[in-house]
Amino acid sequence: MEILTRRHLNRATLERQLLLRRTDASALQVIECLVGLQAQDPDPPYVGLWTRSAGFHLDDLTRLLHQRKVVRATLFRGTQHLVTADDYLWVRPLLQPMLDRWQKGAFGGSTAGLDLAELTAAARAILGQGTVSRPELGRALAERWPGRDPIALARSAQGLLPIVHPPPDGTWGRRGTTPFALADQWLDRPPAEEPSARELVLRYLAAFGPASVKDIQAWSGMTRLREVVEPLRPQLRIFQNEAGGELFDLPDAPRPDPDVPAPVRFLAALDNVVLAYADRTRMMADERRKHTIVEAAMTVDGFVRGLWAVKRGKESTATLVVKLFEPLGRRDEAIVTEEGARLLCFAAADADDHDIRFHSVDGGR
Description:
Layout: E1 3-4, H1 6-16, H2 27-33, E2 37-38, H3 44-50, H4 58-66, E3 70-74, E4 80-84, H5 85-94, H6 96-107, H7 116-127, E5 132-133, H8 134-144, H9 150-160, E6 163-164, E7 179-182, H10 183-187, H11 197-208, H12 213-220, H13 226-229, E8 237-241, E9 246-249, E10 265-266, H14 272-275, H15 289-292, E11 296-300, E12 303-312, E13 317-324, H16 330-347, E14 353-360
């Protein structure tokens, strides 16, 4: 069985994730290719598209949200994602058992003793009136169940029902009260009745492979996917990682040479490329995992070498702060600076002045 080194896996991942070169594909096509973008906050999906797409503009994504071609909703791992409307309609029902567990784990104490079917029906009736904010939904549900936490009731409905968050929620720079709408009403289409876990596995491998069953489960939040993967075995290529673990992949998927150059990339906060694996060593050393859950990552030669954030000053200055895990050579620092300047032109176009500063992760220069 062929062994794939860490660099083999890194380059395959970067190729599938459109991070070896920027693509001319549309924003909608990129979102479909990646099986969605992590979207806990509104701005990161825009950055995720900018770092992958040539000529991407803010309006490209905002327009898709208003056109209802892309939706923001609670999906993989019980977290917010942007996905195409077409994908949402089959992915969301497939994830329902996982979201039921998510509701129980996060809010089971607050809903103990409640009939969740009644809670679901009540929430559906309230949302049937149109777009309702999360606080409004929580207050309405708390009127029926006095003494219960309104936030927990509303958040529970978010997992129990196919709910999307219509714009302006999820658009660049917009943070505030989260609107809720029933997905079938917002999209004017019903969800799939028999969604395919097989299709989800194949889509994952196309976007993230080669990968293990545990990797697929870590990305999706689903369990027992070995039962789905095993019947696919004759159709897949099987590899081993350096630790002897089994990896699955599509036969014709690209697996570039490990020495293919990889450009500097500023990844979006919580980008799935750093979260979508149980074993993340193809992208970073294990000790860096905790940092990428809190801050956005930057890659040099394909691997996470630092963290970044744009800080706003009082005098219309936007500063890109790059925190490095270890010093860069002069050439790499110059390339990071060049790409960082492009990032500032995109993410802080309204600032009069741009600045870039380097620090170490532990706080020094």
